[in-house]
Fold this sequence. Notes:
Elements: H1 8-15, H2 19-26, H3 34-47, H4 53-60, E1 65-70, H5 77-91, E2 95-100, H6 107-115, E3 121-124, H7 132-139, E4 144-147, E5 160-164, H8 166-179, E6 185-189, H9 195-210, E7 220-222, H10 227-237, E8 246-249, H11 252-264, E9 274-276, E10 293-295, H12 298-313, E11 322-325, E12 328-330, H13 342-348
Parallel strand pairs: 1-2, 1-3, 3-4, 4-5, 5-11, 6-7, 6-8, 8-9
Antiparallel strand pairs: 10-12
Helix pairs in contact: 1-2, 1-3, 2-3, 5-12, 8-9, 10-11
Amino acid sequence: MGNRSVTSYDVARRAGVSQSTVSRALRDDPRVVEKTRLRIRALAKEMGYVPHLTARSLITRKSSTIGIVSGDLHNPSYPTLVNTLQDCFARNDYRVLLMSDRTEGSLEKDILALRGGLVDGVVFISSRLDSPMVSEIIDWRIPLVILNRDVDGRYAHRVDRVTSDNIGGGRLVADHLVDMGHTRIALISGPLDNPSIRLREKGFRDRLEERGVPIDEGRVHRGAVDAATGLAGGLMLLTGPDRPTAVFCATDYIAYGTLDAAKRLDLDVPGEVSVVGYNDLQQSSWSIFDLTTVRQPLEDMAVAAAELLLARIDGDEGRPVHRNFDVEWIPRGSAAPCAVSFAQSVADR
Length: 349
């Protein structure tokens, strides 16, 4: 055949069957008997036949592609979610198109591409509440699942969501720190337009108030969700005689920077200051961090999101689903009972 690409017609002629039979066999259509399917697949491989994706999408009206709209991939929680989603979709013969939810640049073109049939569905895992992508995708009725974040009241009953119990997780941290005798507690957190951060911080603050240990606003530092925020907050808060005995970092990523700050200030962790994170990223169990944290089951959440989206693509038209996963306290070596007595702490305040 020279340099000409092998077509399904060529495979059909060699196999002695129709083109439609070749197409069905390569899609594992049960209408073609198994013996014939295997023979056609082997012959296609031998001849070097590669299905033409554009032609197939015209026939099936599906792109066999799923879009994942992600936030900053420097944050280790995003690669965990993306990798799990990619594995799930690949097992179901879908390719993945990874897109960035940026505030400028080609965002408008990306939205138009999604509306134009570039993908069969979208998983949205960006943390931005103000992203125009979410409303556009919902309004255009593109199958969509929101993963590891929430949406405001306008869309809460119009879209599938997979989240974890952020309020409960924040309360869990507050209870454990107070039970360990800590009363001088600091918070290093992210932007409040991040819905996950906002909810876990609310749970944390409300529970401290209920336990009679309200947080001092002078012991709160806020910045981007990254290690630099943890470092800057730690260097600012962990100085002076009245420094906190415990710090809750709203994510493990932030906590890594706070542990670095404690080391730079020559403070013993957890002897002089306890540090608690949130997420239980893989790195948090490494001995260099040994981070006490709250585990949200990111991989299980991503699998649930993939299953929901595939069901929608296959025609499930049921009511929107909200799956909210439980979280778990994971004790490690970065948090311990307070070395300062409760009575002395109260006297100092």
